[in-house]
Amino acid sequence: MLSQKESKMNILVTGGAGYIGSHNVIALLDAGYNVIIFDNLELGHIETVETLKSIKSEGSVIDFVKGNLLLIQDIESVFSKHKIDAILHFAAYSQVAESVKEPQKYYYNNVLGTLNLLNVAMDYDVKKIVFSSTAATYGEPEYVPIDEKHPQNPINTYGKTKLMIENIMDDYDRAYGLKSVRLRYFNVAGADSQNRVGEWHNPETHLIPNILKSTSDTGKVFQMFGTDYDTKDGTCVRDYINVEDLANAHLLALKYLLDGGETNYFNLGTKEGSSVKEVFDMCEKVTGKKFPVKIQPRRAGDPAILIADNKKAKEILGWTPVRSLEKSIQTAYRWEQELSKRLAN
Ligand code: UFG
After folding, report:
1. Residue 180: enclosing H or E segment and its boundaries?
2. Distance from the CA of 280 to the center of ligand 1, in angstroms?
3. Inter-axis angle of helices 113-123 and 72-81, nearest 10
4. Which of 27, 45, 64, 138 makes an SS bond possible with 247, Cβ 3.0 to 4.6 Å?
5. Which atom of ligand 1 is nearest to the CA of 298?
6. Is 158 among the residues known to form the active site?
7. Ligand 1 mean position, distance from CA 259 (Å)
8. 93 touches 105 (CB < 8 A)
9. pLDDT of res. 60
10. 0.90 cut: is pTM over it?
11. Which residue minimizes the CA distance to atom 23 of ligand 1?
């Protein structure tokens, strides 16, 4: 429960119309914060904003600003209109393969966009930010589970942009007193338990929605990338963290900063690894369907195993993920059905 002072706080959420951002907006509203969504709607959806605006939560206010982090005047317009207390920064491009093909696009949008945001924030004396970082900053794992002491040697441009931003935030702390919490996500999965928002990418590259989309009805066949890895069943192992558990970690990170916490960084994962085959089998179990599958060669840049050591987030933030992979698949499936209905209309 928030104190009266905290519940009146205005939290700026960049990328609030996207997958992870939208679940965080709901968590913030439920916790009693006022939310200002900033999104250029390139990857986020106006329908998501409408849904978020329709969520009635006692006493909290929600505002939406369509704007671009590459345009200083757009960012200024938010800070001059609202007294911002803290920022949750999600807005970014996040496709690993695309980032390698088009590094210019990624450095420009992710790094420069964040610099613009930080610079305006400094001008307005806003010095608390929770940042959406990634396991991709670690690169090829030297050991698993990966803890926060693991060296950060990203092997793709996406991971490099996120690491650069982490480094920029450290320098801004030393020079200007910016306090940041960097949350390094492993594989985010699932959807809102009330089915209001969920994963909505075009094109979709992620494992669970791609399995769920491959039905005989649509003729879409699921492509399983690589069955010859040195893992329990030959397919890649990942740590699937539920998106609502992830949003909870952001609330705790925000509270940590509002309570005067120093700059810090945490892995967000479950410490459980599931193989692609196990996820596939679980999708069939949850849906009661058989999904067509085609075995393909390995996808470039996929490490065999990525599992998070989440002890630090547990100890310092008091965070515990509680939702299972099965729960993530159940909610993702419900959302997938909702989304295909919407897209058909
Ligand atoms: N996979 C398939 N078929 C598909 C999609 C995925 O076999 O259609 C496999 C992949 O090859 C991989 C696993 O499923 O082995 C998971 O792939 P995802 O694309 O769902 O997720 P990634 O592990 O590649 O990447 C995710 C995020 C990145 C982040 C990374 C950090 O999408 O942004 O986790 O761990 F950088």
Report:
1. strand 179-185
2. 13
3. 40
4. 27
5. 11
6. yes
7. 35
8. yes
9. 87
10. yes
11. 187
The active-site residue, picked from 106, 158, 172, 185, is 158
Ligand 1 residue neighbourhood (C-beta within 6 Å): 94, 96, 134-136, 158, 186-187, 205-207, 210, 223-225, 236, 238, 276, 299, 302, 306
Q: Residue 238 Cα, ligand 1 centroid: separation in angstroms?
A: 8
Determine the pLDDT at residue 8.
Answer: 83
Q: Residue 128: helix, strand or coil by DSSP?
A: strand
Give 345's pLDDT tier (boundaries 50, 70, 90).
confident
- Radius of gyration for the alpha carbons in the chain, expressed in angstroms and rounded: 19
Q: Whose CA is nearest to atom 24 of ligand 1?
A: 302
pLDDT value, residue 338 = 95
Atom number of ligand 1 nearest to Cα 235: 15
Q: What is the mean pLDDT of residues 191-216?
A: 94
Q: Whose CA is nearest to atom 21 of ligand 1?
A: 206
- Name the closest-CA residue to atom 3, ligand 1: 224
User: Quick one: how far is CA 269 from the chain centroid?
Assistant: 12
* Dihedral sign computed on CA atoms, order 45, 47, 53, 56: negative
Give residue for tokens 């060669």.
Answer: 297
pLDDT of residue 315: 98
pLDDT at 7 over 60: no
- Is residue 272 within 8 A of residue 305, CB to CB? The reply is no
**Interacting residues of 46 by C-beta distance below 8 A, sequence separation 6+:** 17
**Residue 220 amino acid letter:** K
Distance 29 CA to ligand 1 centre (A): 30
Quote the tokens at residue 137.
């900053």
Please give the Cα distance from 152 to 92 (Å, whole number): 20
